[in-house]
Amino acid sequence: MKLIGIETATDSCSVALWQNGTVLEHFEMAPRRQTERVLPMVAALLADAGLTPAQLDGVAFGRGPGAFTGVRVAVAVAQGLAFSIDRPVLGISTLASAALAAFDRGAQGPLLTAFDARMNELYLAVYEQQGSDGVHALVADCLASPTTLPPLPAQVQMGTGSGEVHREALQRALPGLQQWLPDGYPRAATIVRLAAPGFAAGEGVAAAQARPVYLRDQVIQGARQ
């Protein structure tokens, strides 16, 4: 099985290829440049692997939450590529992707994964590692104010992601939160690793069914006007 993953929800831009458990990734920081960078990165990745798009079996993408434009870019590119080769797609939580990337770097769970959502809000979740290529949500992805957080496991001692800007408020809710792993970005490499079991189980859907997850209703409503 050969899968490609696309992740553009934060200031980073990455694409990755999963081939029967082996992962090749291209990753770069590209704030507000994902639209111009992602397709050349896909082409370069496939060239490096000696593959054509038609040889892919599925397209995984970071479905959000994250920057509104960045999430839309990943969905649109995944849809376009999947349509062109008539392959299924599968969206993966960007918070889950960032959590697995943090576990790869030695983070210990349960891990608070939080992105700055602007407007004095956070996208956050709590994950524990499940095997070498999986995560399990103890607190599901949600949008919250730093001063009105959902119930969080008291044993959380480490966090990651751009939500560190609200670390002081988070530590008031979680006194044990003493460590923060920097550069907590979602990555295409962890997107494809998390997606592989779903594709193997037949959970991929038609390209037209690819959906972003914004978590902020007012942003979606504003975009539809």
Automatic annotation (TrEMBL):
InterPro entries named in the record: ATPase_NBD (IPR043129), Gcp-like_dom (IPR000905), T6A_TsaB (IPR022496)
Pfam families linked to this entry: TsaD
GO MF term set: tRNA N(6)-L-threonylcarbamoyladenine synthase activity
Keywords: Acyltransferase, Transferase
Domain Gcp-like residue range list: 28-150
UniProt KW Acyltransferase keyword: yes
Top-rank taxon: Bacteria
Family in the record: Belongs to the KAE1 / TsaD family. TsaB subfamily.
Name the record gives this protein: tRNA threonylcarbamoyladenosine biosynthesis protein TsaB
